[in-house]
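hey
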């Protein structure tokens, strides 16, 4: 049914307008308590065998929504209603910014992929912090906060920019992510270099500790386009600084192996590619990180995860948690339900008692 609706309606709409329309409906359904509970009962049934403990958090499962969908923390309850075990909001910057000119979001339907050059469009960390502070204290949703650099801020002032967002958002995050890997903010990926990344992560960690009473897990999100030696260097730095985790990976600037018309892809221009074509490289980076860290740090897999089998393979490769986004556009509201049911079946057919036992099993073999 959803695929028919996608072909008849969403496919004909500008992708960004379709996103706003779909997100409006999700938020509307979640605003009606009886309807929210009914939808959650259908789309978000919880298998206790999928409960996952990672980053010091107790989650109903390992499958979360990656950053980028809910940039301003406006629809967390609606997204958990659909079955996401946790929601990562953002990317949020210290200053509000409109992002890059439109059009800036494009579908590659033949590849089940997206290209975006959104440019961290968001309302700014002060507005997002106020919205998170106003959330009901009884909410059980697990919320990750993903922060990035304001576009107009120079690289030399990036640390202070990230610290400002951390000060505002620290108390409202179940975990915190430093994003230095989007290709759509000029100079941002330069911050992945260890000599720049070390002072940045150290400053964010110190700020988190200064503004919270408990330990807020800190992760860094890296690009799939890093050379293997640079992936190793980030892994070593994460261990050195005792980071809680690494998210692998963000979008890629590569365009290799696409089935979509080459002229169409060239006409779209710059931007980060996400979805199915990212699957192989994202998995390679994950495997390399797990081997380098020897399972001593929590790894979160994202990039090309479409099915329960995709999620299961990332878990076996070393991921404690998995995330998706692009496939949500193509699979629709029943996506989480299918992933959860598939994971339950795969776990039941495996030799592992829990998902935690399965983490890194392929690497250990």
């Amino acid at each position: 049914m959803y695929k028919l609706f996608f072909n008849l309606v969403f496919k004909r709409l500008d992708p960004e307008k379709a996103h706003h329309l779909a997100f409006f409906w999700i938020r509307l359904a979640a605003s009606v308590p009886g309807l929210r509970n009914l939808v959650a009962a259908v789309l978000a049934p919880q298998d206790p065998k999928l409960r996952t403990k990672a980053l010091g958090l107790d989650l109903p499962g390992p499958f979360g929504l990656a950053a980028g969908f809910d940039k301003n923390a406006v629809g967390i309850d609606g997204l958990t209603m659909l079955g996401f075990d946790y929601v990562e909001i953002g990317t949020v910057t210290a200053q509000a910014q409109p992002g890059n000119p439109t059009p800036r979001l494009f579908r590659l339907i033949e590849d089940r992929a997206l290209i975006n050059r959104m440019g961290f469009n968001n309302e700014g960390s002060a507005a997002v912090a106020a919205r998170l502070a106003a959330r009901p204290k009884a909410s059980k949703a697990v919320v990750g906060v993903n922060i990035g650099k304001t576009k107009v801020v120079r690289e030399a002032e990036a640390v202070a920019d990230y610290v400002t967002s951390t000060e505002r958002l620290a108390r409202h995050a179940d975990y915190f992510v430093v994003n230095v890997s989007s290709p759509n903010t000029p100079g941002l990926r330069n911050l992945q270099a260890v000599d720049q990344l070390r002072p940045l992560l150290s400053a964010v960690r110190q700020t988190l500790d200064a503004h919270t009473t408990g330990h807020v897990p800190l992760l860094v999100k890296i690009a799939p386009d890093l050379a293997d030696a640079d992936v190793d260097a980030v892994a070593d730095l994460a261990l050195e600084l005792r980071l809680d985790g690494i998210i692998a990976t963000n979008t890629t600037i590569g365009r290799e192996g696409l089935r979509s018309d080459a002229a169409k892809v060239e006409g779209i221009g710059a931007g980060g590619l996400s979805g199915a074509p990212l699957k192989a490289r994202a998995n390679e980076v994950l495997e390399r990180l797990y081997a380098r860290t020897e399972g001593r740090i929590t790894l979160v897999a994202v990039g090309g995860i479409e099915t329960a089998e995709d999620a299961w393979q990332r878990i076996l490769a070393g991921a404690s948690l998995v995330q998706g986004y692009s496939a949500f556009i193509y699979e629709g509201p029943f996506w989480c339900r299918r992933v959860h049911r598939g994971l339950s079946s795969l776990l039941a057919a495996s030799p592992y008692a829990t998902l935690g036992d399965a983490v890194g099993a392929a690497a250990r073999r």
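The mean pLDDT is 97. The two ends are 41 Å apart (CA to CA).
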